[in-house]
Write a structure and sequence with these properties.
Blueprint (H helix, E strand, L loop, with lengths): L1 H9 L4 H5 L9 E5 L2 E7 L5 E11 L2 E10 L4 H16 L4 H35 L3 H11 L7 H16 L9 H13 L3 H20 L31 H14 L4 H13 L3 H5 L6 E2 L4 E4 L10 E4 L2 H12 L21 H8 L27 H14 L4 H7 L7 H6 L5 H19 L13
Antiparallel strand pairs: 1-2, 2-3, 3-4, 5-6, 6-7
Helix pairs in contact: 6-7, 6-8, 7-8, 10-12, 10-14, 15-17
Family: Belongs to the 'phage' integrase family.
InterPro entries: DNA_brk_join_enz, Integrase-like_cat_sf, Integrase_catalytic, Integrase_DNA-bd_sf, Integrase_DNA_bind_dom, Integrase_recombinase_N, Phage_int_M, Phage_Integrase
Organism: Vogesella fluminis
Length: 456
Amino acid sequence: MWGQMMAKQENTLKVATLKALSASDHKTTLSDGGGLSGEVRIRADGTPAVSFVYRYRAGDKKREKRLGTWPEKDLAAIRAERNHLRQMVANGLDPIEEERKAAEIERQAWQAAEAKRQAEAAEAARLAARMSYGDLFARYRAAHVDKLKSAAEIIRRHQKDVLPAIGAIYADEVTRQMVAAVGQRIADRGAGRSAHLTLGDICACYKWAIDTALLDEGQNPAASIKKTRIGNTSKMRDRVLSEAELKHLLQSALPACSLTPMAKAGVRLMLATACRVGELLRARWADINLAAGTWTIPAEHAKNGQAHVIHLSRFAVTAVEELASCAMSANWLYPNTTGQKHVCIKTLTKQIRDRQKGEAGAMSRRARDTSSLILSGGDWTSHDLRRTAATLMGELGVMPHIIDKCQNHVEANRVTRTYQRQEYMAERKAAFDVLGERLALLANPDAANVLMLKRA
């Protein structure tokens, strides 16, 4: 009975009563109970309109929410909304605040959707503007080559060897391996000089594209190819330090040699991270996160122009901590004498080579120590450390595609590269950890009975 009385008190207004409102009721207030009331307005045509509002308390605040105007909105619908809001209040919610939150969520969702739409539009525009290498060369020819005295030869070399090989490939997807293959095919037919000139032509085309903003900085696949290596495969290195050599290097040769502590730490870091010497010597302290155990090589320092995360094993962290203990710059791990820039990227390679000259003797104004880093397997270079680290990972059971990821290699297969974007971060961390554990064991003079891995 009480519930029925309350329901009756809450719904006291009748539609007939509202329809019967007249000019004398203008600006009066009607109550429907349950916090719902309406202000009467008599329109110019004499018809009534009632603007309803729901009043409630949210904590110590008096609040009101407009629910619409009868007869445009049905009275039953207004009451249903009132009942819904009353239930929210009973549950400890403020309807106005909840509406504001919902609007904010909707606004953020719209912004995210708009940002995604704009990004997709920008990417679509970028893809639409992409050129094949053939298209790029045509623009380069019209803007530059045709004005040169050597234009006929450059065009002939491209038409004969370059365009048939890479002309149909997107210019930003041509790899250094593809470019090197073009030069090697020319050299294989005995035209070594022509091979070198053709590689120079391709490099110049890409430099022009970068200078004119057709391509981004770092998108020159021919820039890092050493033309002297093309056609002379005997110079291609395959040197990998054996575990016996690593044991001697880490336990005896490296500690005793005349390299600076920073250089010695660098040798260990290259072994532990499989990085390139140029990436190491360009490294900034801001790229190192010891708390997370990572070193991020930014895109502008990576050979392939793609940022790369290296997980630092305990062995690698120790080397970084040694570098930090003798840090000479707040910015660079290996600063030059002014501290304003990194050291020349050839520095460490030269220092390693100088200590393997043996009887050839020291060069003028270079290290007097000429034999401390000589190993039983012959001369070795800083890049051989990268190859050694990758090989050691493989011998420790790391899968080849994970090793490629650890070395920041670009997937050669275009379809795989396009559709398979997984980064294998956990597997890469495990690979660096197992490598670091092995190196730590080889470096430990107290681990006398290290079982050497057998290399196939």
